[in-house]
Specification:
- The chain folds into 2 domains: 162 residues, 7 Propeller (Methylamine Dehydrogenase, Chain H); 183 residues, Methylamine Dehydrogenase, Chain H (7 Propeller), CATH 2.130.10.
- By secondary structure, it is mainly β.
- About 1% of the residues have low confidence.
- 2% of the residues lie in helices and 40% in strands.
Amino acid sequence: MIGQTWPSEMRDFRDEKTGRIIRQLTQTGNNVHLYFTENSFDANRPEIIFLSDRASGRQKKPDQQPHYNLFRLNLESGVIEQLTDEPMGSAENLHAGPVGSVTKTPDSQIIVYRTGNKIKKLDARTGDSITLYEEEGAYTLGAPSIACNRRYIAFCRNEDVNVPDGPNYTGFKERFYLIKDGRITLAYLDGSGWFDVFKDTHQVGHFQFCPDDGTLGSFCHEGPWHLVTQRMWLLDFVSHNVWPCFRQDEDDSVGHEFWTRDGYIFFDNRGPGHDGTITSSRTQAVATDIAVKQSTMIPFIGLADRQGNVVRRIDMPYYCNHYHANPDHTILVGDDVDDLVLIYMDDKEPGSGSQTRLEVLCNHKTSWHTQSAHCHPTWSWDGKQILYASDYGGQINLYLVRPE
């Protein structure tokens, strides 16, 4: 029920590996923060926006399709408030369903999310909600992104293909080969309409608007990284021109790109034979002949400018699954197989020859079984806290840790 509240579930404990104090934020049901390319934190208030199935009335494991809705948690009081009450979907009612991919403005006033075959907008201050897009064709909807001018969103649509779906990247390789019609679609935030900006012959994903330019966005050719020949692309919403970002070579396996606050595109290059995955068996999902963290080239992370040119390359002793940068991208947080690690980048200016220093932040203990159980560590807007998820104990919960 919208407006229902839960008392604080916060508790503090000491990480057994590093001794740092960890604050567990949730303890009821499954609780998932926004994807790492987004930010659950409110830029102005001590709050986060997150997904939870606590109001569903059903106790489910993370791989049993929990019915998620949107919630707000006050980081000082711990009080949790329900923001949406989307009904459960069915084969007969495709309009309903759990809340899926979510994006929001930094101040958390505008929240846009996918539910069923719709993309909806919620004004979190007034509670008003409208439908921005409803899929009536044979396409699946990707995660939305809000332009910085707050006039429109964009998202990916891919032709709906018949492949298995489930944990540990089930269907990942099959979708890569089967999907031949992918589109980037724009929808106005006032609900007045939508149109396709770009049509591709590949599966497209990971669409993100530039943080300070509403006419520029990035997207990817989705699939196992070692099979994708050119992962990252930039899209001009005025001219509809598309151009590659970091032109790949034969040995490159690239992914998990995101925009930094000052408008660079961060990316991860793991080298030959890496598909960008990790499973609950601590193996890759597709490139199973290459062990996790095994590499025939030095992995590196990079920053590209808005023309797609690499302006900084940083060699890594090994790779993490995801990275997220602090506000001035001098420190990364990464989710290694068992730990969260801090990666200090000594060279603060774009350039070559940068060095790194790694420090274990805490032991996350997640299983990697489902996408929602991935840690996806994310810095707060002020760079003082890191939010992450773990399914240690059987259900997904949210945790805060301070990097100092």
